[in-house]
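Case study 2.
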Amino acid sequence: MRVHFFDGIDGIIPIPLARSRQKERGYNQSEEIAKGIAVLTHLPIYTDIVRRTSFKESQTHKNRWQRQQNVEQVFELAPKYKTELACSSAKESPSHLSLDGKHFLIIDDVCTTGATVNACCQELMKAGKMKFSFTSVGWTKE
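Prediction:
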């Protein structure tokens, strides 16, 4: 039986961790999940498109509203993608992956309200129109 979930997806973007959080853990669990999916799907993993600029505090004991506030403006596009729209309108050829029109699989380790994924996707959309699919290995109740 063939699974069609991954059809049409151009690449995988794991939810990034703040540098301090990744240094503390030694790895990014979302990136590790992405590596496993990439082995099966042969999709490229992009860890340089969006980054997390800060880690305010854990989402664990927050309600839906607090989770949303906790992740507002903690992601930013890498500098080379901030000028993507200007390059494409000037008919210049960017020296990196064009994000406009792409379909990305966003991976988070655990999802509760989707606030983190939503915040990340909102930042990504600043580089153009794109489509997102999402997967997680864990779901929790609020």
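Confidence is low (pLDDT under 50) at residues 84-94.
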